[in-house]
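Step 1: inspect the first sequence and its tokens.
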Amino acid sequence: MDQEKIFFTFTFLLILSSLVLIIYSAHIIRISHETLTPPSAKIVSVYLCNGKIIISLLLNNTTPYPITINGGKISIVQTNQTILVRPSTLAKEEIINVSAPLLPSYAYYSTIGIKGLICGNISQNKVYISFYCVAVIHIVSYVKVVHLTYFNGTANVTFLVSTPVNSTVNFIRYIQLANDNLSRFVAENLGEIYIGRSFPAGVHNFTVSIEFPIVFCNSLKKGYTYTFFTYLNLTCHYLDENVTKCLQIYYILRN
């Protein structure tokens, strides 16, 4: 009889200890099903301007730790150009801009393939971010005045033309020079001046001598601000068509 009591008591204690162990384990054991998303990179935009191809790249750090970027390379498939990525520290998201010289062959592409590999570290662990995409090319063409002199009814005006394709400056018309402080015209030429200058792709300067038939003042006074204005006719020569546009040109001169 004593042995049966001992047996049942021992069995009860085992069952009780098992229940306690199960309840305790349920509170301390956690199984994580989280998925870690690796860092990534993607192309935001591609512009042709200022004699360069400019690529904007979005880097996304999806980890809770900063990434030390040691460097990297970006390659343009069609032209075999390689652009180096500078070292930096990536905390979360960041857009970096890289550029390469403009080549004449870009006039033939509406899209380009871009691939790259960026190397870095999280603490002592190596990180590699690779990417490839086909990006649309955005073309930026512009003309501006970079220098102007005026005396006795004649102005010498230096223009800068920047296009990623061959271009022709056809003419300028409706030219005015005004004194901003006095709200008065200095000189006017309401006619048209033929230029007919053609340029290859890139950034170029040219100077035009402008005779004003209407003159209100023979010189520019010190301490005054002047505005030069004209319309400029520009033709961009693409592979399959020529596009002509009329540009409004303003130039502020503080004498």
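Step 2: inspect the second sequence and its tokens, then contrast the two.
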Amino acid sequence: MFYDKERGETLVDLDTGKLLWRQLLKESDYRNYAVQCFHQTERCVVYSRRRFIVADMMEDGIDVSNKDGLVDDEKFVDAENYIADIAVTADDKYVIMEVRDYDSSFLKVWDVEAGKWKKIDGKQEYPMGAWNGFVLGKESPVLAVYTTDGTIDILDLETGTCKQSLASGYYKTVQCAFMNQDQYLLSYGDDQYLTMWDVESGKVRMRDDSGDASGNLVTDGNSNYFGLMYRGYRWSDGDYKDSSLRVYSVDDDGQFYAYADVPSGYASFEGNEIFVVWLVGENGYYAPLYDYRELKKRAEDVLDGATLTDAEKKQYFVSE
């Protein structure tokens, strides 16, 4: 999705190169439209400022225009406040929106099939305690949101209820991530503690001081591994040190252990293999690091309940 002054908003299918949507906009009413695609169906959410529309992605593209070729305002739904972020559940049933009103943030849930707002615990707007303070389940229709009461609430989108309220404490910033088929929730706040929660019981499985991390948690729903990003820094315009990724292993009791610090980028744990994005200038690419079996074997050989030294981490875990 990109904007061009002469051509307007454009959405292109990257696999086929086919143009899906090109929408000219009034220059006097310029809006930067964004698109969030669904996961399982050929649909998407087109949104800008405080309005949105769920649109079908047809063979000949997406059309939200009127007869004059301009955006048809009547097709859009008013979210009543500025839409800061949008996410779609894995089953494509719900669209989750973070809306902001000055310094306050709220979550709103749009029921796609019903075509109307869905209330959670009787609220159409669910108060948030921090910007970007929500995360969707990887596999199930659950949502974790950090609230103004200093809790992380686990919301069941099917029943419209809060199934668990985790007493996390008050933070200015906090990030969460589900893992292990959504049975565990990880949280990392500005107190620099990494916490593993049991979603069903609401109990803390483990809590650890993880130092000055960036708070970017990396999971994909598996039960074995997750990652936590640590900040990079710039000495000068031409000399940049990449961020590092700390890989953790999780045992059957929900206890997690730092396996290794690997240089740079982001990670994916899909397909029983760990991939890290190595950032080179403005470009990046995925490079395989280790598969699970090799990583586990290397760790078991040297860990044995002890903490790895920096030399051991480099010897056993950092890709050459």
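Step 3: confirm your contrast with the notes below.
The radius of gyration is 22 Å. Residues 292-302 form the longest helix (11 residues).
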